[in-house]
Amino acid sequence: MNASQLQLDLDEAETGMKLAAAILDSHGGTLLPAGVELTDAMLTSLRRRGVDMISVVNERVSEADLAAERERVQQSLTRLFRRCGERGASSALRQSILRYRLGGAA
Amino acid sequence: MNAPEAKVITMTEVLKSIRDLPALPIIVIELMGTLDQEDAGAGMLAEKLSRDQALSAKVLRLSNSSFYGLSSKVTTIQQAIAILGFNSVRTLVTTASVLDTFASSEHVTFNFKGFWRHSIATALCAKTLARHLRLNQDQAFIIGLLHDIGRLVLVTGSPEHYASVVSYREQNDCYLIEAESATLGLDHTMVGSALAAHWKFPVLIQKAIANHHAPNAADPASLSPIVHMADCMAHALGLSDDESDLVSPVLLPVWSSMSLDQEALDRIFRDIEMQFEEANKILMQA
Questions:
Q1: Tell me, what's the pLDDT at A105?
Q2: Is A83 part of the contact surface with chain B (CB cutoff 8 Å)?
Q3: Does a structural domain hold residue B78?
Q4: Considering the domain boundaries, does residue B61 fall inside one?
Q5: What is the pLDDT of residue B99?
Q6: CB atoms within 10 A of CB B30
Q7: Contact between chains at A97 and B249 (C-beta distance less than 8 A)
Q8: What is the CATH superfamily name and number for domain A5-57?
Q9: Tally of domains within chain B
Q10: Rounded to two decimals, what is the model's pTM?
Q11: Contacts of A7 in chain B (CB under 8 A)
């Protein structure tokens, strides 16, 4: 997850929230695409399908929150990758996780 | 590195530890024999499984979790097989049984919780990657789950020896596999492969466990490249929740052979994180 997203239990989701990521079924098919605003009907349908976690756009994120999140993610990756060196495929994996965690803020 | 306190273990001792492990349920041994067949004996599975209430209950809980995202609730094993397919249910039964086999294991310093979190995370990563690369998802899941299983043989069969491994790793902040080689003179990959052979798991699984640290990128169907990548990803996503966790170096030929762009990786990471905590919770319930 990244700072501009919130991962919520479906029970905490409300109508009007915007999906930060597409919701997929077990075959990788898209049930709802990213960017959709949730409606009551959608929430009911997701509940029926057994979906229990979704990620929505975090509207209340501040610049300071983003900076703190960037710092936290960087530190955690530095710790996990401390024996991998700075180059090659390990570094490519590290970069891709950084971009995934920070989204547009990477 | 500090000089290891050598406590060499021989393969003969390993094989004895393997023979001393509790046996896997017969149903799993029968199922693993059919792993390269599609929909082999669904009727047999349903009938035998319905006699094992604890195992059935766990399979049903998993079937109804976000892991599969079904639109209606599954209440019987027959239904689970009809809806999820024989192959998925076979994977669930195998997973639940392997976990039960080691459920009561104890050790002074080995982190079992972190071990299982990492194994389940690797299984999920392998399954997700296999879906993306159009390879066998169920086999990938099982190999991911079992890739480090040799560690449990060493931990339970030679607890004092393994305490030296853990302490060597802590002193040197190195990979556990390096600590195993330095201390024991062998590592978990060969032990895991020997266990898979003892359990009569297919040769594909035995080899993929043996090779997950040194896979052949040119042979994706062996599934060892997928499990290597899944292992690295599970560490990199921090899913084991273990402060001392270390990402294994990603092998460049494997990374390149998968041609994963950021969009694909985002989807893969997100799928894994959405399913992991719930799958872990259900599988770790006794």
A1: 58
A2: yes
A3: no
A4: no
A5: 85
A6: 16
A7: no
A8: Molybdopterin biosynthesis moea protein, domain 2 (3.90.105.10)
A9: 1
A10: 0.84
A11: 273-274
A80 touches chain B (CB under 8 A): yes
Calculate Rg over the CA atoms of chain B. 18
Q: For residue A81, how far is the Cα from the chain centroid?
A: 21
Residue B168 lies in a domain: yes
Q: Which amino acid is at B129?
A: L
Chain A residues inside the 8 Å CB shell of B249:
83-85, 88-90
Is B103 a domain residue? no
pLDDT in tens, B24-73: 888 888 887 776 666 667 777 788 787 888 888 888 888 888 777 777 78
Q: What tokens appear for A19 in the block? A: 């999906």
Q: Where in chain A is the domain with CATH 3.90.105.10?
A: 5-57
- Note the pLDDT tens digit of each residue in B163-192: 999 999 999 999 999 999 999 999 999 999
Range of the domain at B178: 11-24+108-284
CA–CA gap between residue B259 and residue B11 (Å, rounded): 38
Q: Kindly state whether A106 is in contact with chain B, defined as any CB-CB distance less than 8 angstroms.
A: no
Determine whether the interchain pair B271/A85 forms a contact, defined as Cβ–Cβ distance below 8 Å.
no
CA distance A76 to chain B (A): 8
Looking at residue B168, which CATH number applies to its domain? Answer: 1.10.3210.10
Chain A residues whose beta carbon lies within 8 Å of the beta carbon of residue B232: 90, 93
What secondary structure does DSSP assign to B19-67, as a single string? HHSPPPPHHHHHHHTTTTSTTTTHHHHHHHHTT-HHHHHHHHHHHTSTT
**Nearest-CA residue of chain A relative to B237?**
A97
Q: Are A1 and A99 in contact (CB under 8 A)?
A: no
Distance CA B270, CA B261 (A): 14
